[in-house]
Design brief:
two-stranded antiparallel ribbon, 59% helix, single chain, mainly alpha
Length: 248
């Protein structure tokens, strides 16, 4: 039972590639006044606003704002090769390009994960080399390493990113499986930092504190999960079941 909760959490963060596609045909463009710090970006084949928002802002829900800031209606996609502006300081223009290149590699890796595991790993490592500061390729590589039983290699890779939410969750899972409850709870506390922890983090934390007997803490965490309208129903049900079962 102790392992199952974190197995679920790790599976929840595995498909970290944003693979949704959409084609829109329209000629309407909004003309916005120049505002704030912005940098230029050249629209690439396969781009769409949710993809940019996921990679650049870590917030798919901001895609509409990103489109409007660039001067487009959210349902309009620029033509390939069009230069647009994005709300990122100009000095980070190269970093933004590197991030998007990394994101495309992750998307390709996600597409072939089931059919070509070696190719998937190669693309993920390319994505990591392209943007060393991004936790997404590191997270995906780590999950694959754990599936192959390469825990030491996974720990070495995660070390520099232990302060970020998703790597902290995976480190918690490793510590939990190794019987290091104190270490697991410490990493979970790190993963919970922030105003809106992801549902899988809340679920894993709620279950962990339930198992360790901290029912009040667990109840408060699970309550946050239940109040999150975007949380998958299976995570809500599982976390609530653990809290109720262990509270008997």
């Amino acid at each position: 039972m102790r392992v199952t909760a974190f197995t679920l959490a790790l599976l929840a963060v595995l498909p970290a590639g944003c693979t949704k596609t959409r084609v829109v045909h329209s000629r309407y463009v909004i003309q916005t006044e120049a505002a704030g710090a912005q940098c230029s970006y050249t629209w690439q084949p396969g781009d769409y606003w949710e993809f940019l928002a996921w990679a650049l802002l870590d917030d798919v829900s901001s895609s509409s704002v990103l489109a409007i800031t660039a001067g487009y209606m959210p349902e309009v996609l620029p033509s390939s090769g069009t230069e647009i502006t994005i709300p990122i300081p100009e000095e980070y223009e190269k970093a933004a390009r590197d991030r998007m290149e990394s994101a495309r590699l992750i998307r390709r890796a996600t597409d072939i994960r089931e059919s070509d595991r070696n190719g998937c790993m190669r693309l993920l490592r390319e994505a990591n080399n392209k943007d060393k500061s991004w936790s997404v390729p590191v997270t995906n590589i780590t999950v694959m390493l754990l599936e192959d039983g390469k825990t030491d290699e996974a720990l070495e890779l995660l070390g520099p990113m232990c302060h970020k939410n998703t790597p902290a969750l995976i480190l918690a899972g490793i510590a939990w499986r190794q019987g290091n409850t104190e270490g697991a709870l410490r990493h979970l506390s790190e993963a919970l930092i922030g105003t809106s922890p992801r549902p899988e983090i809340l679920a894993a934390a709620g279950i962990a504190w339930s198992v360790t007997g901290e029912r009040e803490i667990a109840g408060n965490i699970v309550r946050r999960l239940l109040e999150n309208p975007d949380a998958p129903s299976e995570l809500r049900v599982l976390a609530l079941r653990y809290v109720l079962m262990l509270g008997e």
